[in-house]
Every structure is written in structure tokens, then in C-alpha cells.
Batch of 3 targets.
Target 1
Amino acid sequence: MTPRPERVDTARLTRLLGAPELAWLLDRARHRMARGRPLTGAVTLTGPDQNQRAAVERLLGRAPRGGRSLTVRLETVDEILRRSGASPDGLAAAVTALTGPVARLDETRRAEAAAWEEAHAPLGELGAARPELADWAARVRAEGLARRLARTPKAARELLADAAAALRALPADPPVSLAAFAARTLGSAHALDDGRPLATLVLSGTRALTGFADGSGARWRREAWASAGLLKDELSSTVLTLNLRGTPALDWSADAGEPAVLTLRQLARDTSFVPHAAAGRVHVCENPAVIAAAADAHGPGCPLMVCLQGQPSAAALTLLRRLHARGAQLLYHGDFDWGGLRIAAALARAVPWRPWRYTAADYRAAATTAPGLPALTGTPAESPWDPDLSGALAGLGVRVEEETVLDNLLSDLADLAPTP
């Protein structure tokens, strides 16, 4: 039966049960009501003071038992309240009248679950609109990222709605400054500043969208934003090339057979730039030593090369995507170690490539013929382009750096060089 506090004699009830010294008794009853438990049985207060003992004596009309605790039976209180007319509907109505409505805990939990379900609705809509982000959206929901960042369902829905709006507009093409994008898309140039919950969420989605590798630090964040065309610094992200043509400066370097560095600013500002050799093969390597050796060995006759210089930078990804879009076939080689496999996998998530002497067979051939190779260390990584490669590294346990197989790489490039 639902309590009817309007039938309560407020003045009499307050005298009987409303004293501060009986607050513990109301709390115990309220706790049981919230959990749907009956108001029966005994409740106990440990270490009561004399005022609390006196208040119970006034309520019950008799002195409670002595001892270090104070025990009251809820049925007794219910009977007193009904018989006195202070609360004809008993203890439950009295608790409601004195402390306010009591929400059932199970109902509260259902309402909270429904609120969080509604808060995550923008993620479902984003996954439907951008299928490539569906797995990321599901992971954000499962891991409770929005709960940790926003704390309440209302704040989480606003956060996720803003994140979805930003991610729908990515990647930015042509690239644009991060602040300008935030102002245009989210109404504030500072909406995606470092440290803000929205920036954390959108950067996570950006990496899922572009395949940018895990990392940390200011430089990594700058590169991760730039991988989706959002620029915090256009000059620090660079890519090393050899015999890339398409601008007067690049043509001059290619005529001399000298490596050239392109900045993200150059690629972002000149979106019409298309390398002349875009429809052919492009050899991509991990380490600058390979580019330097190729320039020394083959000069202007060397086929077009691009060097990642470690993890793929935003500038490198921008150039390689542009080359691929124009029909180029990308061939990749890197170090045979766990870090090299991670770099190659990160590149594969961003742009398609084929192995260039970068398979399990190539590793075994180098590992069993080169003397004095260093031991393989670090955490193992996968090699999706050749699943056997990861197992081969684990089995042989040695590192094979690109410099170790440099003669083979230069020989491949010589075979492709134009005949004088």
C-alpha cells in the first residue's frame, strides 16, 4: 500500500519521531524501504549517547534495555504510530512525511540505466552514418569512456553529440587548423584543446578513423590530429623523399638525385600537388639510411622513394594517401623487429601497401646468413600482411635492421632504374 503522508498528524509525529536523536532510526527504515524490504525486525545503533537513549524511551514509553547498543523493533514503532494517530498508515508513511519520498533502489537503477542508454544514442547514430567508426563507438560504450569523462547521463549525451558532430566532419580535406575546425564545427575554437574531455573523445575516434598508431606526448597528439587533416603545427611534421617531382624545388632535387624534405604545410597548402610518377611504383622504407644509400648509389636514376623515419607522420600519410589515390603501388620495407612490425601495421591501417622484401622468407634468409645479429627484444607484435613473419621473429629471436639488407634493397632499385 502506498504511504499517504497527508493523513499524518505532523505536530504529533514530529514530537514522537522527528527528534534529531532518532535520525538513525529513520535512516534504517528508509534504507529498508529503498530496497523493498519490509519494515519488520530489529534495528540497532552501536554506542548510543544518553540523548539517543532518552529519545527512544519517549517513543516507546519505556526505558530500552541497557548495554553498549540500542535496539528497536520496527513493528513496535509502526504500532505506536498507528495507535497514537500520529501516522494512521504506519511507519512507512511517517518516514515519507519526515524525510521525503523514498525512491525504490531497483527503480532508480532502471531509470539510471535508461538514462545512460539514451545518453549513448549519438554513438549508435554515428556508427550507422560512418560504418568505419562502428567498432570504435561500440568500444567506447563497452569501456565506459563517456561515463568517466562526463559523470552524468545529461553531460555524457552532450559530450557524445559534440564528438559525433566532429567525427562526421573528418577527415578534413583540405587540411585546416584544429582551432578553426573546432570553431566551425563545435562553436568554440578551444573545444578541442588538450585536456578537455571532448578532445580526448574526438582524438580517440580520429585514431580509429585514420589508423594512427598508439602513443603519447604533445608531438604524438599533434601527429594524430594531423592524420585526419587537423593541424596544430604545419611545419614539424615532415616526410623524407627521393626523386619526387611536381614542384620546382622537388624537380631541382630530383635532377640532382638528392633527398628532399616536404612539410605538412606544403602538402596541406598545395592540395593540387600531384607527383609526376604517381602512377608507378613507390618504394617506402623505415630508415633514412636507406634513402641516403639509394641517393649515393643511383642518384637521379633511382626510382621514387619515401621514408617514414619511424612511425608514419601526418606528412608521410598525407603524401602516401595522395600517391595511392593517383594510382601508385606502394611497396614497403622496414626493420625486422617488433617495433618495425608495429610501424608496418600502422601504415597498413592508413594506406594499402605490398611487402618489399618484408616477408617471413626474407627475414629467415637474412637472419640465417648475416653474422652477429643483435637479439630481438620487446613485446611481440602481429604481422597481418604475412602472419608467418611474426612467428619467424619469435622463433629465430634476432633483429635484422634495414642496413643489414641494404645491398639487396639497392639491387632491387638498380633493376628498376631507367637505362641511360
Target 2
Amino acid sequence: MASALITGGTSGIGHAFAREFASRGTDLILVARDEARLNAVAEELRQLHGVEVEVLPADLAVRDDVARVAARLEDQSRPVDWLVNNAGFGLHSTVLDPDDIDIHARALDVMCLAVLILGGAAARAMKERGHGRIVTVASSSSAIYTGNYSAIKAWARSYSNGLALELTGTGVTATALLPGWVRTEFHDRAGINASKIPDFIWIDPDKLVRECLDDAEKGKIESVPDWKWKLALKVGDHGPRTLTRWFTRVLTASRKRH
């Protein structure tokens, strides 16, 4: 039976990954801070799909907790076939405010350092076995300049690309997922008012996850959902930097008004 370890697996995109894997008969290891919610989600998935669900409470901003998750990934007596590095949160704060330093530091710990440590642990174990899939949830924001969040997601994207190249020929693949606006509680938690975003911009999280898993199975280095976001990333990556900077200023200004 295949297994997947998902960080941040009880909400948002991570929960969508958990539901999709469970529906395919894949056993799960769910990692999150909220132990009560972990247990509730685990029991729900067991009942609905008959899969084994292991819960691993951990705060990925705490190095000892990250080390415990890494050890689970490297335990060859209980092999993990998929790692979904998903845990994270939005940053609706300025990089100028000294009062926000702690939240920026936490963001770097959870969405960069933990990703680096867990990706490396999974890659070593999977490489030894000759197969495995690593998915890192980055963002379309990696192509623009919305403060520290864009910087973090650009790092995650670059890291995943580098990992994929290093794993070439090993039977292990690494895929960066680059979603745009996905209908989850993510934006509410970040304090971002998304009420004026047109409906056609939004992505369904279940569709997003299915496409990502298909892309990962094909060994694609990046997974971008939907034609409109593929176009947006192409413009962001290859269009004039002046256009990208202008768009970022407009987006940032609109958020400040809400």
C-alpha cells in the first residue's frame, strides 16, 4: 500500500491532498499543529475511505518537531512514497514594520527551513529505494513581488527545481505546485479580503490537487493549474519586469484599501 506524508494536511490545499490520496486508497501520515483537528480529520478519512491514517502533531517552526517528522520520512521500515511539503500561511503584513519580524521569521522557518529539511530527508530515503514523489507547494506569487511572501515562495519554487534536477535518474521526482487563488480558508486566515476577486480567477482545490498529482506522476518539474494561471505565470516569468512591478504595486495598493 502506498503512503503519503502531508504537512498542513488538515486544512486548505493540504486537506484537499489528504482527501484525494485517501480516495485513491493511499495511506496517510498527516502533520499539523492542532492535535484535536488532526485526530478528527484522520478519523473522518478512515471512515470514508478505509485507509490507514497516522497523525504526527508538529509545529514546523520548532526544529525538534521538524527533526521528528524528518526521522519519520527516513524510517525505511515504514516507507513514505509521497511527501507533500504544504504547511504554510499567508503574510498580509509589510516588510517595514519591526513588529512583524517574528511572524516573518516564523514564515521562513515553516515555509523554507522545514521544506529544506523535510525535502532532503524524503529525497535520501526515496533515492535509496529508487522511487518516490516530492511535491512542494509554492505559489504563483513567486513570479511577482508581494513582500516576504513572494520571496519565500520564490525560494520554495527554486528549491524544488534544484531538488528535481539533483534527483534526475534516481527514480525520484520533485514537483513545485504553483497555484493562484484557490478557494480555501487561506485568505481569511491571512486577513486578506478576497471578496472582489472575480469568480473565473478562482481554482477549485480538488481539481488543483488532481492535476498536480497527475503532473507529479509524469515527472513534471512544475505544476501550474488551469490555462489562465499558466498564462499568468508565463507573463510573470518572461514578460517585462516593469510590467510585473507595476502589477505588484496595483495589487498591493488594492489590499491596503481593504
Target 3
Amino acid sequence: MTTARIIDFLNTRRPEGPCLVVDLDIVRDNFKAFRHALPDSAIYYAVKANPAPEILRLLAGLGSNFDCASVAEIEMALDAGATPSRISYGNTIKKERDIARAHGLGITLFAVDSHEEVEKVARAAPGARVFCRVLTDGEGAEWPLSRKFGCVPQMAVDVLVYAHQLGLVSYGVSFHVGSQMTKLDAWDAALADAKRVFVQLAKQGIELKMVNMGGGFPTKYLRDVPSAEAYGQAIFGALKKHFGNNIPETIIEPGRGMVGNAGVIKAEVVLVSKKSDNDSHRWVFLDIGKFGGLAETMDEAIRYPIRTARDTDAMEPCVLAGPTCDSADVLYEKNMYPLPISLTIGDEVLIEGTGAYTTTYSAVAFNGFEPLKAYVI
């Protein structure tokens, strides 16, 4: 969303080169929308989406908790004002020495999805609380999370029993339905799996306390998406369906949904050309591409809204590409992007919905290009 504040910043500051501008007012509004939609769920912001200190400080002040994927992110959340009790080490793939460092910083909540990871936590963070991540199919997600994280529900039962045997607190179950999830009912099947794990653990005398319902909440790109309130109603309905009046403690981990629509990237057209005299389409090259922060255009998964000053002119589909000497640095080719025919070298474009997963995906000096600059206003 290109807000008046962002336009004023760009017009006043005229920053050189491609840059991201994030409007904190939008982040604040998004946090309030999540809190209203699921008032009984604790919000754990996924720091990996955008770890800008200004964003973390704002969210910490609003009462957010934080889902962290590394010790560095844990330290960022602590520096922003979060206490250790408001931080989860949510990565299921951790070095044992990093678990020990996190535990030394006061972190007591860790994600696991295997017996081997449980053993590391038991050695490095004795007595800690653990939750086991369960696999989901990710159907309906525009950025699926595949099979890298989680285990099947029956293994989750075994993992949590093993954690209990090793002196850890088997605290709950987690899942992630897939990033940019557009199906309101996606949480239903995952919550059914979570309930089955709860029941199996109860039969063995272990009472789980928490369901971490992950992220997946979308931001608006070219297509409309349901509101946070609509997701909240669907998720609460699924919780009631599967847990009845014994709804456990719940966590949500919005990342993209918290900051995606708060950011806009300003970029510039470097070249407009064709590959032959009778080529039916143009190639438009920008000064930013996959290696400059737009990695989520891989397989053309995320399709960003692009605005120009010439949008009232006639449009024509084109191939959109980045500036690096790498043939993979093409953003949209299979499904070409409509841009003004009059678009020319030196024109600025605004790429909306880029507040999440852009600065953190930006390469460090690939081809000598600087990492994506970012401004938080």
C-alpha cells in the first residue's frame, strides 16, 4: 500500500537507488487487527519477515511476542524491549550450542520435530518447554513450506513422549499451513491433527497446554484476500469444533500479514528492449531483482502490484527482469506483466506489498550491487 506518508518521504528525500520504505502506521493497524480478530491468542511476530529495529520496538511496545529463527533474532527481540518470556525459538533445526546460548539468555520455549532435536534441547536447555511441529499439506498457499519442517502426527506423539521422558516439559503442538494462505478453512485439518496429538498424550498422562497455529496470514498483492477478522472467525470456529469448551492456550505467528502491506520498494527502469526485430514482447529490466530482495518471485509465486506514473497509458504484457548477470534473475516471464507501453529508461516504479521478506532476502553485494536500502517512517 503506497500511503501518503511513503509518497511524501520519497518526494522529499529522493533516495538514490532501489529502496524499501515501510510505514509504521500500517504495521500498528495490522497488529490491532490481529489482536481484535483473535483476542485470546498470543501474537508472536515472525521476526524473519522484517527484523527492522523500528518495527520490533513498535511491536514490543504494543505487547507483541516474537517468533525467532536464530540467536541473532532472539537478541534483536531482546534489544527491542521484549522479555525472554515473550520469545519462542521457533526453528526446528538448531545447533546445540545455539540452544544453549538461547537458554542462557532466558529462552524457555523451543520448537522440535524429531527425537534428535529433543535430545539436543534436553542437553542444552534442561527443563525447557517444547512444542512439536506437525506436517501440513500447504494446499492453497502461494508460498508453500513443503516437507522441510514438521513430522507426521503419530511421530509427534512419540517425540513429545520422549521429551517428557528426558525431563523436558512437553508443552504443545505447532503447525504452519503455508505462507500467503488464501483458504479460510486451511486451519481446520491442522487443528484436527493437533487434537489427536493432545488425546494421545493425555492417554499417557501428559497434558499438553498449547497449540501454535503458525502464520500464513496473507497480505494483499494483486488479488484480494480475506480480512484478519475473517481468518479469526474461521480459526475460532475450527478450535471450537475440535476442542469444544477445552480450548488450549493458542499462539499465532503473523509475519507477512503484519508487515507485507506496510512496505513499498522504489525502483528504476534500467533498460527496455526486445530480443529480435519481430519480437512480440518487450523486456523491462529494473535496478532490483531476485537477488536484490524480490526472491519470492521465484517460480512467479508472489506477484507484486507495480505502479508507475504512466499507468493511464496503454498497457502491454512484458517480461520483467532484474539487473544482475544471472539468467535466473527474471521476475515474470511465463506469466508476463502488463506495463505501460510508454514506460522508458529512467522511469521510477513502485513495487507494493514488499514490506515482508525483501530486505532479509537481499543478497550481500552479488554482482557488486548493494543490499536493499530500507527506511522505516
